[in-house]
Design brief:
The protein has 25 helices and 24 strands. α23 links the parallel β21 and β22. The model is unreliable at about 60-65 and about 215-220 (pLDDT under 50). The strands form six sheets. Strands 12, 13, 14, 15, 16, 17 and 18 form a seven-stranded antiparallel β-sheet that branches. A five-stranded mixed β-sheet has the order 2-11-10-3-9. A four-stranded antiparallel β-sheet has the order 5-4-7-8. About 35% of the residues lie in helices and about 20% in strands. α1 (about 5-25) packs antiparallel against α2 and α13 (about 415-425) packs across α14 (about 440-445). Among the domains are: about 5-60, Orthogonal Bundle (Helix Hairpins), CATH 1.10.287.610; about 70-160 and about 205-300, D-amino Acid Aminotransferase, Chain A, domain 1 (2-Layer Sandwich); about 305-410, Nucleic acid-binding proteins (OB fold (Dihydrolipoamide Acetyltransferase, E2P)).
Length: about 650
Amino acid sequence: MNKIDRIKELVETLNEAAKAYYQEDSEIMSNFTYDSLYDELCQLEKETGTVLSNSPTVKVGYEILSELPREAHPAPMLSLDKTKDRDALRDWLGDYDGILSWKMDGLTVVLTYDEGILKKAVTRGNGEVGEVITGNARVFKNIPTVISYKGPLSIRGEAVIKYSDFDKINQEIEDADAKYKNPRNLCSGSVRQLNNEITAKRNVHFFAFSMVETEDSVLELSFNNSFEKKYDFLKALGFNVVEYRRVSKDNIHENMDYFASRIKENDFPSDGLVLTYDDINYGKSLGRTAKFPRNAIAFKWADEEAETILREIEWSPSRTGLINPVAIFDSVQLEGTSVSRASVHNISIVRSLELGIGDTIKVYKANMIIPQISENLTRSASLIIPDTCPSCGGKTIIKNESGTETLNCENPECPAKNIKLFSLFVSRNAMNIEGLSEATLEKFIDLGYIRTLDDIYHLDKHQDEIVNLPGFGEKSYNNIIQSVDKSRECTLPGFIYGLGISNIGSANAKLLCKYYKNDLDAIIKADAAELSEIEHIGDVIAGFITDYFKKEENLLLIERLRKELTFKAYEMSDNQDLEGKIFVITGSLNHFSNRDELKDLIEKRGGKVTGSVTKNTTYLINNDINSNSSKNKKAKSLNVPIISEEDFLNLQ
């Protein structure tokens, strides 16, 4: 394959990976693989002088989708070219002096002053357009709102939350799953709050690293042609600037060692260094590329990797039939924690890594959080993809969807599927039967007490056996039976959701019941064409519904269950002001007793609540807007607004 064809192939592959990650909430390659392919593309573009218009190397950021006001930057805020090679950094500097500083890991913000007063603050956004956060910037802990210089002045810097403040915030959160994972995402959400009272509580700090030169400032402020003098000027005005050192090619390595030695002591997050020519005019003379200015370059610390031995691939079946590969390896220390497992995501990644049991692999933490395999040094490619399901022994098949191969169990009677189905049926949003955990259900299924869903309503036949099971007893049995009996009066949407029809979540179940006026028989008899006319249902989901009700065994199950149940009315609100809006709820709540209560209100008002954030999500509701939870991270990556309960209650 020639270089041009390879460029085309890399552009297509990287764009598909980016689309899957940012828009479709899936992952078709590891971060490490993406970075390697990206670097290869950069090198080939340099060698050939060819850059395609859709190349990821000429794209800057993503579109803004936020309720915050938006504003175009007077000059594009470009990202920096980067290297992980120390010698390459020294060679880039050449015979010039440079300013070596921290590359802080927060959110880039531009502060604009006029007549000595802070007039405006705007985030970097997509480099061309940012979000106006002036009210939030005014409550940053360390920026002057009034300065002595009265001319127009725009300052670029990084908003960060210190580790010490990050730890204090996490200590106040009792729920371990709700704790933030890293300061960067906490800071990003804090800076972009709709309520700056929350921003103020987060102790956001601002560190200046450059200035945006306007025509007026160029005439008045020459800085003696020294970038370092800009820092002196900003410090004199009261700004904190990033820590820096003046360097040359002769001492740059020892200064890099200094910065490296400080990482563990720093009270602020950083992800590398920035080297800028001190000679301002020389830096300007170099111009810029479509994406990078040429007067500065970033140095990225290499990911902390550890070498280990792959001992096993654990194949984990799910209710959907998808069987997920999980790598089990000798425990290693990464980023201060012990790691022995890493998701491999799918068959495509297994094959690209050419895995085999006993292989020597390298592992790292993507974004310092998620363990992943970065490289397979042995590449034996000897791993055998199981042809039988580890749960039921049924035949497995490999599916290829959009270029991604996954392993699946096709057996509809697979215990893994049934356990998940039973667990769904007893869940709070379905029949709300307490005491039947997944572990308990699995035990009852294994012992033969439960084979179909209606068997749950006949557990009293096995009273003596259950009472004498280890860990149970009379009290546990009575609690389960009381909860089962309580569930006999239920809502039709909860019942339909509990049946486990593909793609029918709680929200779609309520839409069906609303459309058919709580008539189960009408829902059963509905044809696909009619169902597809219901908003949010469509042709595909309509097909899933009709396919389910075509099966005789499903109809017989429903009839048996109807003999046990009484359906109480479920009414939708006359106020449908949330129609067309899609919400995701996460974190603890203050105004509602639980998430289901909030979810119920949203759905009664015509909205929809889903479990994961996608490009179609209208709002993510989280009182801890700056949380580093996976949902918050996804929302930020897609620029989905994150709002609190208060914000939700104020929605018109």
